[in-house]
Each structure stands twice: as C-alpha cells, then as structure tokens.
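Example 356, ligand nicotinamide-adenine-dinucleotide.
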Amino acid sequence: MNKFDYMEKHGYEQIVYFYDKTTGLKGVTCIHNTTLGPALGGTRLWNYDSEDDAVLDALRLARGMTYKAAAAGLNLGGGKTVLIGDASKVKSEAYFRALGRYVQSLNGRYITAEDVNTSTKDMDYVHMETDYVVGLEGKSGNPSPLTALGVFHGIRASLHETFGDDDISKYSFAVQGAGQTGYYLVKYLIEAKAKKVYFTEINPSHIKRMQKELPMVEYVEPDQIFGLNVDVFSPCALGAQLNDETIPQIRAKIIAGSANNVLMDEEKHGMMIKEKGILYAPDFVINAGGLINVYHELQTYIKDKAVRDIEKIYDRLLDIYRIAKEENISTHAAAKVFAKNRIETINKLHSNYIKR
Ligand code: NAD
C-alpha cells in the first residue's frame, strides 16, 4: 500500500505512528481533515492481521468521521486511532497512559474517545495524561440513548418527507437489533404511541428484556424483519445489512436506523434503494446523536443544549433529501455533498486547525 498516494487521493493531513517500549503500546493515529476543527475519533483496539490492515482501517474510519462531524454541523474534523494488540492481554493503566501521552503530543489537533475494545475506564487513564479525550465517566454519559434520540427525530423527518406527516402514532416499524441503541429507539417509539412495532434480535437476554419491559412489541425471527409490511425499517444491529439479498425483500417506504456502514456498497446499494422508491436516511447523519452529545463535553456540558442540537438532525435530513431530489442522486451521495459543501465553504476562511 502506497500511503502517500492514498493520502493524496483522499485528502489526508497526517499519519502518526507510535510505539512505547515499556508497555508494548503500538498504534497509528490518522488525521483526515481539520478544516472545521480538531480531528475527533475514538481509539479502536484490534488484533489486526497486518500493519497495512491497521493503517487502512484507521484511514477509512478517520475519513468517515470528517463527513459525520461536518454533516452534524460540528466544528470538528475527522481522525481515528487504532491500536494493534490483543485486547484480552495488552490493557493496563500504563498502556493507556502511554496512549494519553501520544495524544497530548499532538497538542489538540486530535481528540480521542472510546471505541471497539476500549472503555470509559480506559479513557480515564488517557485523561491522566491529556485533556484531549471525551466520553469520560461522569461527563456526557452513555451516548447510546442520545444516538437513539437522534434516530427517532431522523425517522420523524423521513416520515414528513415521505407522507407529509411525522406523527409516529400513525405508522408501523420494524427494528433490527435491540441492543444499546435499538432498545432505546423502541422505547421512544412506544412512548410516541407507534401504531405497531416489531423487533428482531439474536441475543436471548436482549429478547427477554424487551419482552419483559415492552410486551406490546412483537418479536420476529431475524430473517423475517426485512420483508415485514411496515412503514419504516430501522437497522440498529451491524453494518452491511442492506445488500443484494435484503434490499429486494424490503417493503417499508423508509429505511432509517442507527447502524453504521449499513449499505454493503455505498454507491450500488444507495442507488438500488433509490430506484425502489424507498427513502434512506444516511447512516452517518441520522446516527450522529452520540457524537453531538460528546462534542458538548468540549464546552461545559449541558444536557438540554446537547439534546437541542440532536433534534436538529430532523432539519438536516430534510436539507439532504432536497439535495438528493435536486441533483437526482442517492440520499447517501447527497449527504456527502452536504458535508463537503460545509468543509469547502469554511476552507475558504481557513484550511486547517492549528492550536494557538
Ligand atoms: P449493540 O451491540 O448494543 O446492539 C446491536 C444489537 O444487534 C445486539 O443486541 C445484537 O445481538 C443484535 N444483532 C446483531 N446482529 C443481528 C441480526 N442479524 N439480527 C438481529 N439482531 C442482531 O450496538 P449499538 O451500540 O446498539 O449499535 C448498533 C449500531 O449502531 C452499530 O452499527 C453501531 O456502530 C451504530 N452506532 C451506535 C452508536 C451508539 O451510540 N451506541 C452511535 C453511532 C452508531
């Protein structure tokens, strides 16, 4: 892999390798674009097969964060750190404090947070060495209910766009995954008196929790969720769930959920959904509630203020749907246009973030 070619092609600013002899900490921080502000993105710990796999993952995820923050209207750029190692063996206070020192060495150009295989407790150790870390215990708290809240408002916007009326009580829903985000989303839908909610799950304890707390929500087997005759299909499980096999089964008029990278192939499947006449709420726009919440930690955290910003996902999606119609492109492509427009406009003011 020629990294400079890749950086040039996709407009990356910086790749930082670090290795700490004492703790065995080994990783890479990628900064994609800091036009809007410091790069923010979590730290992922994974036993990558090769160094190239690790760098490519960090590069891809950092770029995704640029678009997500830009589309969310935040003054943040995109970055990501990946640590190469076995999560069951390498973690310790010293390990994460060593990471904190590397983060500090970037002097605020990059802000980290938890991600796959790293926790708020690990970030507390990072915080002992740097202030450039968010998602700390006792600050903005668990992001999942706020991600779900953003998805709830995004669903309302999508209903408004499709049916001209966003009253949840008139519609039916199929939710895939009742984990951290899906569970809260179903709660919000039930509170808003949804006409009918179905859900599917593969984790028996999550099925039980739903059946105990919200018995009016009907369980279906995982392979039945796509073909249900509902108004909204809400993917809240894993990525790549919208693909050649599942899209033809979908009968809902709207697809809007929390899952990241839910289109197996962004271009192909984004267009396939558009051609079927289904409205798709782009994942990185509708699921930005958690990021918006954590962003508020960088100022004095006031939950009401964060919630008000999360509610803006409604209007942002309407703007994106308008761009998609005007340019006759998929909503996913329109979301990228929306994000890029914001970066390009601010870029005319200043092109990168350097802390004074
Ligand atoms: P989670 O692991 O808590 O929940 C996912 C649930 O989906 C699990 O309960 C799992 O058992 C279930 N599941 C997996 N495959 C399934 C299948 N084939 N059929 C039915 N159920 C299945 O994760 P989460 O935090 O709720 O995140 C869900 C998605 O949302 C992920 O793609 C994540 O990246 C994305 N996301 C989450 C947040 C957040 O704040 N948690 C923020 C942005 C994006």
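Summary: Residues 51-71 form the longest helix (21 residues).
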